[in-house]
C-alpha cells in the first residue's frame, strides 16, 4: 500500500479525529465554555455541528447570555449597524413603486478605526416582502434588529432578526388593526426586559375614529418573544398623550435606554401643544414622563436617540443632550445648526424648503453622523468641529445604530407567520386605502393633511 493510498489517508484521518475527540472529552467541563465564548459568532454556529454536547451547551440560555455579556464588556472594537438604500431603491419607494430590484443593504462597520472599514455585510432575507417597498428599522438591541413594514401603509409585518447567525422570528398579527379598529397612528418600540430575560415589541395605537384623536389614551399592546404572543396592556399612558409618529419626516422615533423605551409625545393643554418624552419601562411595564427643554410652543422634536446612557434629540436645527438621565434640568443645547453651511456636515431643519441633510445617529465617541443631501455620510466632532468622510453613501431611509454581535435566537428555529396570516397581511394592506372611505373620508383627509402638511408647516414657522 502506497503512502498516498486512500486507505492510509482514511486511517490517518480517523486516528486524528479520534485523538482530537479524546482531547476534547478530557477537558474539564468548566473550561470548554471559556474557550467557546471567545470565538466569533460564525465559528460558534459551526461548533454546534461538532457533537450533541457542544450543541446543547452553545444553545443553552445560560451560554447565550454569557456570550452576550462577554461580547459587550470585552469587545474593545465597537460596531455600528448601517441600513442603506441605493438611490434607485429610495426613489422607487418614495414614488410608491414596488418594482425595485435592489436589496436593502445591512452592514457592520468598525467604529474605532480611521478608515471606518466594513466588518461584515449581511444578505437581507426579506427582500421583496415589503408592501411599502422597504422595511423600517424600529431599533436594535443585543444583536437583534427589529424591522417593520409600516412606512406608509397599514401593514402588520414585524420581524425580529439576528443577521449574524441568520435567525429570525416573524411576529403574528397584532390585535389592533385597520380592519378591527379603523384608522389609527401607531408608534412601535423594541427593547430587552432584563427582569424577565425577554425581548419585547411595544405598539402604541392612537385611534382616529369619530374625531376623538388625542382625546383618549392610546391603546398599548406588547409582544413577548418568550411567549410568542401579543397582549393588550392594562396600564394606560397619560390621557391625551399621542406619540409623534410621522414616517415622512421623523427619522428616529424611539430610543431604548436604561431598560426603557422613549418617544417624543404630544399633549394638548388648553390651546397649546406640549411636547414631552413618554417613557415606558419594559420591566415594570409602567409609564412615566420626562420634560423636554424649553422649546417653542409649536416646535416639534424631529428625532430622539440613545446617547450613551442618556438621550439626545434634534429639534429643528438644534442638537440637545440630556447630560444626566431623567433629569430634565440637565438638557443642554450643545450645537445650533441653523447658521451653518450644508457642506459643514450639519443637519438642517425639517419641513417646507428644508435641506435634505439629516442627522442619522451618533458614534461611540459622541460624533454625530449626518447624511448629506447627495447621500454622502460624514461624522462631525461636536467639540473640534472636525469633519470625517465615512466613505459610505445612503439615499434616504438610512438607519445607524450601535451593535453588538450575539447568539440571540440561536436556540429558536426560524419562524415565519402562517401562510394564511401572510396573505392576510397583504390583503389588508392593499385594501386599507379603499376601506378607509367606508370609515370616514373627512377624518382620513384631515389626518393626512395634518401628517403631510400641517406639522411640517408649523415646524417651518420657527426656523
UniProtKB/TrEMBL annotation:
Alphabetized Pfam families for the sequence: F-box (PF00646), FBA_1 (PF07734)
PROSITE patterns: FBOX (PS50181)
Record InterPro entries: F-box-assoc_dom_typ1, F-box-assoc_interact_dom, F-box-like_dom_sf, F-box_dom, SCF_F-box_component
SUPFAM superfamilies assigned: F-box domain
F-box domain ranges (all copies): 21-67
Record's protein name: F-box domain-containing protein
Amino acid at each position: 500500500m502506497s503512502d498516498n493510498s486512500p486507505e492510509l489517508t482514511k486511517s490517518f484521518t480517523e486516528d486524528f479525529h479520534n485523538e482530537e475527540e479524546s482531547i476534547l472529552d478530557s477537558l474539564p467541563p468548566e473550561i470548554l465554555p471559556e474557550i467557546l465564548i471567545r470565538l466569533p459568532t460564525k465559528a460558534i454556529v459551526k461548533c454546534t455541528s461538532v457533537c450533541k454536547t457542544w450543541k446543547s451547551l452553545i444553545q443553552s440560555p445560560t451560554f447565550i447570555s454569557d456570550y452576550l455579556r462577554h461580547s459587550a464588556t470585552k469587545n474593545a472594537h465597537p460596531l455600528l449597524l448601517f441600513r442603506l438604500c441605493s438611490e434607485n431603491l429610495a426613489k422607487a419607494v418614495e414614488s410608491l413603486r414596488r418594482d425595485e430590484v435592489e436589496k436593502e443593504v445591512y452592514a457592520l462597520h468598525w467604529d474605532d478605526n480611521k478608515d471606518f472599514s466594513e466588518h461584515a455585510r449581511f444578505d437581507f432575507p426579506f427582500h421583496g416582502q415589503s408592501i411599502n417597498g422597504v422595511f423600517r428599522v424600529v431599533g436594535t438591541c443585543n444583536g437583534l434588529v427589529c424591522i417593520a413594514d409600516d412606512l406608509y401603509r397599514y401593514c402588520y409585518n414585524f420581524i425580529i432578526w439576528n443577521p449574524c447567525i441568520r435567525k429570525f422570528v416573524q411576529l403574528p398579527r397584532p390585535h389592533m388593526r385597520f380592519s378591527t379598529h379603523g384608522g389609527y397612528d401607531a408608534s412601535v418600540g423594541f427593547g430587552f426586559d432584563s427582569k424577565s430575560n425577554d425581548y419585547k415589541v411595544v405598539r402604541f395605537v392612537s385611534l382616529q375614529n369619530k374625531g376623538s384623536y388625542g382625546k383618549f389614551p392610546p391603546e398599548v399592546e406588547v409582544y413577548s418573544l418568550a411567549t410568542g404572543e401579543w397582549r393588550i396592556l392594562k396600564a394606560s399612558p397619560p390621557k391625551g398623550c399621542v406619540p409623534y409618529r410621522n414616517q415622512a419626516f421623523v427619522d428616529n422615533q424611539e430610543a431604548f435606554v436604561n431598560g426603557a423605551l422613549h418617544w417624543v409625545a404630544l399633549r394638548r393643554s388648553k390651546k397649546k401643544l406640549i411636547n414631552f418624552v413618554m417613557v415606558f419601562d419594559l420591566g415594570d411595564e409602567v409609564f412615566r414622563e420626562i420634560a423636554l427643554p424649553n422649546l417653542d410652543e409649536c416646535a416639534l422634536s424631529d428625532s430622539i436617540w440613545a446617547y450613551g446612557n442618556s438621550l439626545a434629540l434634534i429639534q429643528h436645527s438644534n442638537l440637545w443632550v440630556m447630560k444626566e438621565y431623567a433629569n430634565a434640568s440637565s438638557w443642554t443645547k450643545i450645537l445650533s445648526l441653523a447658521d451653518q453651511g450644508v457642506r459643514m456636515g450639519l443637519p438642517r431643519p425639517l419641513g417646507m424648503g428644508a435641506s435634505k441633510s439629516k442627522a442619522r445617529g451618533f458614534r461611540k465617541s459622541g460624533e454625530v453622523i449626518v447624511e448629506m443631501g447627495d447621500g454622502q455620510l460624514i461624522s462631525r466632532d461636536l467639540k473640534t468641529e472636525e469633519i470625517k468622510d465615512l466613505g459610505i453613501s445612503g439615499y434616504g431611509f438610512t438607519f445607524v445604530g450601535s451593535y453588538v454581535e450575539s447568539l440571540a435566537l440561536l436556540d429558536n428555529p426560524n419562524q415565519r407567520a402562517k401562510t394564511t396570516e401572510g396573505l392576510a397581511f397583504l390583503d389588508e394592506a392593499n385594501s386599507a386605502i379603499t376601506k378607509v372611505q367606508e370609515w370616514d373620508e373627512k377624518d382620513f383627509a384631515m389626518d393626512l393633511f395634518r401628517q403631510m402638511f400641517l406639522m411640517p408647516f408649523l415646524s417651518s414657522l420657527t426656523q
